[in-house]
Amino acid sequence: MRYFDQPAHVLHDMLKQKEISAVELTQDVLKRIDEVEGSVGAYLTLTKEAALEQAGKVDEKLAKGEEIPFLAGIPGAIKDNICTKGIKTTCASKILEHFIPPYDATVMTKLKAESPVLLGKTNLDEFAMGGSTENSAYHVTRNPWNTDDVPGGSSGGSAAAVAAGTAIWALGSDTGGSIRQPASFCGVVGLKPTYGRVSRYGLVAYASSLDQIGPLTRDVADAAHLLNVISGHDDMDATSSATVVPDFTASLREDVKGLKIGLPKEYFTKGMDPEVERAVRAAIETYRSLGAEVIEISLPHTEYAISTYYLIAPAEAATNLQRYDGVSYGERVEGSDLVEMMTNTRTEKFGEEVKRRIMIGNYALSAGYYDAYYLKALKVRTLIQQDYTEAFSRVDVIMCPTAPTTAYPIGSMISDPLQMYLQDICTVPLNLAGLPGISIPCGRSSQGMPIGLQIIGKALDEETILRAAYTYEQSQDYHKEMAPLGGKH
Fold first, then answer.
1. DSSP assignment, residue 145?
2. Residue 199 belongs to what H/E stretch?
3. Which terminus has fewer CB within 10 Å in the chain: N or C?
């Protein structure tokens, strides 16, 4: 039996029943990495020896008859913008090429308490800025369903690893869709929690009012389990929520009778791939047949979401990335004086997309333009939040496509940033409003590429979106299919 294509909850039961050992499981996944990583490129750093050591320790506990937590002995991967003590954290940027954090992110501390097997750090768009993982300073990650296509981004490495079976679970981060969109493109489950549900301490900041860490998994049950592990208040993050964390696995029941689903007309936009729209509408019909009620709603300020996001996020990024100056953090390129040294460092070590966003951000924040751009964007953000508040007074969840298309060929959009930004139309409004959202597979295109359904919930109501996602998933088989890893099929 192949273990690498099983979800974590199945493997957890097998470990407890002693049907497999943690070392056997880890060896199986490492063998899979040896076989397919060359054609996928999901990882930036692999920690194979440490992984086997961690697995051995779990087997010792099992041999003694000790109870093990959910993630114990189960191999997973971490996006390379999450600080890992003693393991390189590059953010896929040349400026952090040799950075080894002296501390763990809070999510890592929480994870390590579970004794998982950590396989390594996954590739991303540099500093999480991008939607295709083509902006990595190191290499392009490829979509396991068709290696000519992008895996999505910025958590493309994490999504591709789960889809390829080179990790059973992974963590990503989501600033404008960076967990959900690659989940959609790679046919896995991606959950962006409510802003503040998971601590951002140790997540290298891109846009601090938008960033959130979340899981990428084989199925909805694994996403709920992982969310249990990483959620909760953290004194190291002033924006983390003090709300009590429920047991998210209690939401894993098949029941959508009477659930009110909002269908926003603005999310079924022109330019959307007809196959994506068909698959999503078919999924909505499945919900209807399972007893849910579907209500047409309007989120009138959606058309301004992209421009709002691409002012707020770069403004915060420009501020956050000031610290990479060749002095405080990161690599240094020498110059004849301080100004030249900083200029040389940033010119050589930042990639094109990062430079573009820093310039947009600095422009939006500059004297004379602040009111016209940044301040106006903050006001529109409030209007977008109010749209959701109004909608949620009538419905329990909102459903729409995760992305307007399936995965596209590598190189086809990289030279057209605007086209790339428009890909985020269905995902960025949630980040602006701080709401939770999950992407689950709901179909395949005629080319066999995955299509994702996005379910949006009220703030701190991950339970309802998990229940809705789980109910649909149990009526389908998409979560049981592995990427064939090859050319077109």
1. T
2. none
3. N
pLDDT of residue 487: 42
What is the CATH topology of the domain spanning 8-266+280-297+389-480? Amidase signature (AS) enzymes (3.90.1300)
Antiparallel, parallel or unpaired: β 260-264 and 397-401: parallel
| Ramachandran bin of 267, using left for φ above 0, alpha for ψ from -120 to 50, beta for the remaining angles | alpha
CA torsion through residues 132, 321, 171, 280, sign: negative
Q: What is the pLDDT of residues 380-429, one digit of tens each?
A: 999 999 999 999 999 999 999 999 999 999 999 988 888 888 889 999 99
Query: How far is Cα 128 from Cα 96, in angstroms, rounded to an integer?
Result: 13
- The C-alpha atoms of residue 118 and residue 158 are separated, in whole angstroms, by 13
Domain ranges in the chain are: 8-266+280-297+389-480
Which one of the listed residues 79, 110, 121, 192 is annotated catalytic?
Answer: 79
In the predicted model, is pLDDT for residue 322 greater than 70? Answer: yes
pLDDT over 80 at 269, yes or no:
no
Using the predicted structure, report yes or no on whether residue 246 has a pLDDT greater than 80: yes
| Residue 79 annotated as catalytic | yes
As a whole number of angstroms, the distance between CA 141 and CA 161 comes to 10
Q: Catalytic annotation on 178?
A: yes
Candidate list 21, 93, 154, 240, residue with the active-site label: 154
Catalytic residue, candidates 93, 178, 231, 241: 178
231 is catalytic: no
CA 31, chain centre distance (Å):
25
Picking from 96, 118, 28, the residue whose alpha carbon sits closest to that of residue 331 is 96
Measured between alpha carbons, how far is 449 from 446 in angstroms, rounded to an integer? Answer: 7
Provide the pLDDT for residue 85.
Answer: 98
